[in-house]
Amino acid sequence: MPELPEVEVVRRGLAAHITGATMVGTEVLHPRAVRSQPGGATELEAGLDDVRIDAVRRRGKYLWLELTPRRAASGGTRCLLVHLGMSGQMLLGEPGEVTSPHLRIRSLLVTADGRELELSFVDQRTFGRWELCDRVPAADGSGYRVPAAVAHIALDPLDPAFDAEKVARVIRKKRSEIKRVLLDQTVVSGIGNIYADESLWAAQVHPRKKATAMRQGDVVTLLDAAAEVMTRALAAGGTSFDDLYVNVNGASGYFSRSLNVYGREGQPCPRCGTPIVREQWTNRSSHFCPVCQRR
């Protein structure tokens, strides 16, 4: 599943090309892509007719377009929430350019300078979705308005308002293993299995260490490591192991070349040379160095 860096790469690509554009016609080609939408395809298609895209936002792994009816004098509170799921792609191109058999939704846009673009939602595994919804105040008390489905999602380490000291105090109250806490999107968002493993390796913390057993400074170091790892991943265009994750131009990211532990079972640890261990963890896997990350 795309994590924060991959979703941010998509957000930046969309923001650069469609901010200020008007959605003039949307067609839903597969009902699963709008399964969360009250009224289904009919409501989504009607709600995306003649609306201006004011901004493209993200929190954690969630992406949304802030919308205003073109006839309105000021900004609205409606938005198009996009979740990429396991394989969702937001592709931009000429009308009719995307012909994938996995095309689920397409929307015709007219840019501020009068050009026509088509925004295509391609999703091979059909776990992704679009949903037209209202923006409400986020649960973090900031007053920032987010889609209702995202209100409970915490800030992520790359958000300017993220307070590592404050989040570390919350983490240290959790009785779970530290990796499980890192993946809890209500505590800290945007971190998935790949970047959890990479952050824990960078901070030399075992994934099964209890959060309550960690010192405040060590948790802050771990959160700083997560921010640093994801910043580097973002600069590399994200992590791609196959062609399911691509940016808006269809290009893959190449941070997979810089991974230290994830997917490197049996290979030497870049820090000490010990073979990396892969361990079953819930329905996933954890990758770590048994020497650098002692339990």
From TrEMBL:
The keyword DNA damage applies. Its EC number is 3.2.2.23, 4.2.99.18. Residues 2-128 form the Formamidopyrimidine-DNA glycosylase catalytic domain. Pfam families: Fapy_DNA_glyco (PF01149), H2TH (PF06831), zf-FPG_IleRS (PF06827). One of its GO terms (molecular function) is zinc ion binding. HAMAP family: Fapy_DNA_glycosyl. Belongs to the FPG family. This is Formamidopyrimidine-DNA glycosylase.
